[in-house]
Amino acid sequence: xxxxxxxxxxxxxxxxxxxxxxxxxxxxxxxxxxxxxxxxxxxxxxxxxxxxxxxxxxxxxxxxxxxxxxxxxxxxxxxxxxxxxxxxxxxxxxxxxxxxxxxxxxxxxxxxxxxxxxxxxxxxxxxxxxxxxxxxxxxxxxxxxxxxxxxxxxxxxxxxxxxxxxxxxxxxxxxxxxxxxxxxxxxxxxxxxxxxxxxxxxxxxxxxxxxxxx
Length: 214
Known about the structure:
about 210 residues, 4-stranded antiparallel β-sheet, 1 helix
């Protein structure tokens, strides 16, 4: 085989590899879309939801806020328990006049903090990732989960991907943007300025974050 032929074959192998990688990424996105349309289970839609009290929460910023950036008016909120646990699943649902983010744990709903993202839907990546993440929508919220048992081999903590698109008003997209030393950062993209309510469910433990659709 001459040198020219070898180079052509090398380029063909690289092209096939890139095509295969793109297929894997598309499959992950497709799984997220399928998940977003899955009916809620365990009485999530009918769960009584109450707002949590506002508490201070830190928020990293990418740059000074611009008047052109849509900023959420939601006050900081927190809740959960002081127990440690591991995330086992995350999905989105749209039913009964609201859009819902559900985060499932193995043993307890850990302590969480919600804060408005000052740069809209452009987020600074959390620990372990860095960089920036641009989500769909106009208004951004950041959900930080603490006391996660990161020493346990995680396996597949997110069977339905870490970037889920619902594309329904108001919830557009949810993405895990950081996971480091027991803290997970989740970005939420909304197409309107609405504030969620929270509920904790048992068997299995779930944090339900519900956004009114009207």
